[in-house]
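ok trying this again, last paste got cut off
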Amino acid sequence: MARIQALCLALAVGSLANTTLAEGAQASGTAPYSAWQGQAHAPPPPLLLAPAPPPELPAAELTRRPLELSLELLLGFASCADGSADDRRCNGLSAGLGAGGSVLWRVSPYFAFGGTASALSFGFHPPLSSGLHHASAHGSFLGVLGRVYFLDHGPVEPYLELGLGGGSVTTSARELNDVQYDESAVGGALRVGGAIEFYLSGHVRIGPAFAWTRFDVAHVNRCAGPECIRLDEAGYGHGTGFSSLSVRLSILLGPGL
């Protein structure tokens, strides 16, 4: 009986202690076991991210290439200086067809250097009063070429060019004695030109071009076979250069610049 009374007394004391703790927690405004209570999980720790890499730039459209090979079909117009004593070699000169080509190394998207050559066959129809027949004429230019470009990418390629070299205009005709005489004006030459070409692909361009070629005539020769004499430049009409319109096709080789 004594043990039962002691157990009942212990239970009563424990219940009273719990009631007292709950009342104290309510009085202080803190819920029991507040350290384990909450309405959501704790947020995760912040992630440490490395800075994003810069965006990759797209490849330039139709980049330029270092090696250019050009071929062109020419329509040429000869220039002639009349002579004070004889200008039969200028009368009757007209336009003619020809061909040309160039090889250039493009050292940057805006500059190229190389060599160029062109040859034309002009019309030559002297009047009957001149006594010339079986007539023909041709011109040529050979030199170094520098070119300046205006765009470093894109489907259109405009540029200007400057050439230095040598050139000639030669007329051939039989005279009244039925002997064929060739008269050639030869000298240093300056060429100025330009073009606008359009890309058909990354390696092919085509477009119209213009060039003006002027000679500093050093001498005018008159030849009958291997025998030649030098003529007075002021007294005899002779070629001084030519201009040309052309269709130019360019082949581009090498990696993009």
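PB: full thing came through this time. The mean pLDDT is 85.
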